[in-house]
Specification:
By secondary structure, the protein is an alpha/beta fold. An eight-stranded mixed beta sheet has the order 3-2-1-4-5-6-7-8, sandwiched between helices. A hairpin with a 4-residue loop joins β7 and β8.
């Protein structure tokens, strides 16, 4: 596939990087990335993946735009309040880069549909805000052999890790199951500074780009903790758990299931 003159100009700052070049840009244009959650994390991830020229971006979200979303969810504007987030996301992405094919999935992601949802994609970004969704995404990606980036934010803090099949621990290796009901504040109660979502979501997009192009060191086997109050980042080394119920030596989770958990995931 030869790049057009317009594409050569659009992606010129990528192409001059020896780590990417023409070959890497073509990989990006051929790639398919699914973003589950068009909110605080999914918004910056989608914007930068689109700008990078990722050829196909899937957006999965069942919600409509709410006025309270606009403090951090930059895919959407005031005029989008009340519209499905998937529609708003598609319009914003296409306005930024018409090269990108946007596939919208206006649905609630569940154990019933997630395996079919992730199947066509090369990489998955977890942009959700609750434990139940994060465990579901983890289990499905492990079972399907799909790499994914986990991200979480709360207050002035964020964290992320990347799972690549066969190369490091999964989310359940780190946190085995959701916390007891009432032990973690709800999303509305917890609050978050909007720019933290931008920082972590951009890092998730970068993890996807690095994986697609095949450069750098991904956050496999590491959890990066971001403290924006102190402007510090601390990587924590993670180990695979041989007793993990989904990726361990004797797995007991053989199919995705829906956890009964509604609390925000502010820790992982």
């Amino acid at each position: 596939m030869a790049l057009t003159g317009e594409q050569l100009e659009r992606y010129s700052r990528h192409i001059v990087l020896k780590e990417i070049g023409l070959r890497g840009q073509k990989k990006l244009l051929d790639a398919k990335v699914l973003i589950i959650g068009a909110g605080g994390l999914g918004s910056p991830a989608a914007m930068y993946l689109a700008a990078a020229g990722v050829g196909t971006i899937g957006i999965a979200d069942a919600d409509e735009v709410d006025l309270s979303n606009l403090q951090r969810q930059i895919l959407h504007g005031t005029a989008d309040v009340g519209r499905p987030k998937t529609e708003s996301a598609r319009e914003t992405i296409k306005a930024l880069n018409p090269d990108v094919q946007v596939i919208t999935h206006h649905l609630f992601v569940s154990a019933e549909n997630i395996m079919g949802l992730i199947e066509p994609y090369d990489f998955v970004i977890d942009g959700t805000d609750n434990f139940a969704a994060k465990f579901l995404i983890n289990d499905a990606c492990v079972l399907a052999g799909k790499p994914f980036s986990h991200g979480a934010i709360g207050h002035f803090y964020g964290q992320l890790m990347t799972y690549i099949p066969g190369k490091g621990p999964c989310y359940r290796c780190v946190i085995r199951q959701p916390p007891p009901p009432g032990s973690v504040p709800s999303c509305r109660e917890a609050g978050v500074i909007g720019a933290v979502a931008g920082i972590v979501g951009c890092m998730q997009a970068l993890e996807a780009v690095k994986y697609i192009v095949g450069v750098g060191k991904p956050l496999t086997g590491r959890l990066l903790f971001v403290d924006t109050l102190e402007m510090e980042m601390q990587p924590l080394t993670l180990a695979e758990d041989p007793d993990c119920p989904v990726c361990g030596k004797h797995p007991t989770i053989l199919a995705p299931f829906d956890e009964d958990a509604e609390a925000c995931d502010l820790r992982g």
